[in-house]
Amino acid sequence: MAAATSYYSNPSSEPSPTKPYNPMTRIKPAITSSVFPLGTTEYKYDEVQPQELPEHLERLKERDTKLKRTIRLVRLISRISALCLSIAITALMIHTLLTFLHTRNTYRETPTGTRTAWHKSTKLWPTIMCLVVASISLLLNATIVLAYYHSVKTANKANTISTIFTAGVVGFHIVYWGLAAAFYKYGKDTHGVSNDLWGWSCSGAARKIQKEFRAEVDFDRICAVQTGGWITSLVEVGLEVFTLVAFLLAYMRIRHKKQMKEVERRSQLYSVAS
Fold first, then answer.
1. pLDDT the model gives residue 246
2. How does DSSP assign 199-260, residue by residue?
């Protein structure tokens, strides 16, 4: 009350000058960094001076570029590897089916009588199923690799649709390769009967007639080919799981870009204020 009376009683006195408006007072304090795995950085607002924001922004942009390159590299390696595995499985299954088709009507005299090289009730669905799955995978992976190569040439602009599509493809690969490997294994020697191509070629009955059919069929080789196809299908599943690392990196980059925008906004406000 006394201060108010003194002011009105002395009109010539001037109020104390106010501080100039500074936009930086409305935003968070400056930032420091703590290094995270894979070269990413999360910024915490605490001690860095506003005039250092442009330098921090440049560092953020450099890290963003490195992260983007890492994501591209992981995706490219996983897709090319999956393509090579799909080609290998497709070739193995085709080789097995062609061997069977070329020799199924070939008869030879054996200790148990005249017969073909294969079980009288040969079951083909496990091998055909694996071939179909491998062919679909081959087509998808080839399409993705070609599309990725094209996108790299045109600056590879990522968007939400492409990310969701790629995630859907990866999920699809994991599910159907997992099912294919499981059913392919299930089809081998089902209920103790070795009448599928894989089970028969690895069975003792096939080894007993190998001598008579040595000019037409190498059962040990067919057995190894089928076993290799199953192992490769398991590797396919593992590879698709590894591909999920790219999506983790993409999520980290989204957070990184948000931090970049915040720093850029604060840097612009500081430029205006200064």
1. 74
2. HHHTSHHHHHTTTTTTTT--HHHHHHHHHHHHHHHHHHHHHHHHHHHHHHHHHHHHHHHHHH
